[in-house]
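Running this now, will post back.
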Amino acid sequence: MKRLLFAAVALLSACAARAVEPERTEFANRLQTCEAIMQDTTLYPDQAIPSAVLRQAKGLLIVNQVQVSLVLGIKDGWGVAMVRKPNGQWSLPAFIEASELSFGLQAGGKSIETIYLLMDDASTHLLFKSRFKFGVDAKAVAGPAAAEAERSTKVFSQVLVYSNVKGFYAGATVKTGTISPLIGATQKFYGTHYDLPELLFSDWVKPQPEAQSLMNLVQKMTQ
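Update: finished.
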């Protein structure tokens, strides 16, 4: 109980200190973690995100969250967003944050890694908003498993959700908190003053070496 209380206090403190921007090395570590999350989806072919679905994606978000509950439930985390540009190449990763609060009798803690596949252009444009929620601003459903995707490769939902909260990637219960682009951090990391539309959809900003490995992996997985 004491450890849970400490974790909850630490997470609340992290939220309060959000104005203190992480160092460049921390953002580089976030990129490495997001790459590892993507790689984990290939460990078990029968549970992986279907390649037929990945090929249709217009964009994706990779989110790493920690959920701590002790009466007040806190889910706080971060990740990256990427879009497929008109030429078929994937954009550089833009940094995002994701958070959620809930109330009620609850206790426990867990790590949640989630991949959101954006399946149409309208859902990728949500990234230009200061904050948004999947399931509210865009229809979100649990992504199909490999066997289901083999029977039908047609996708009708705007956002497909995959999570390894149970130890493997499978259709997730769709309940998301607020997601917000970290525009200032992204601009600082890439050394530019361009806004998100130019960062994501143009070739005007040069990818940093720390981001190239993740970009190469996503390009390979979605071909």
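The CA atoms of residues 35 and 204 lie 23 Å apart. More later if anyone needs it.
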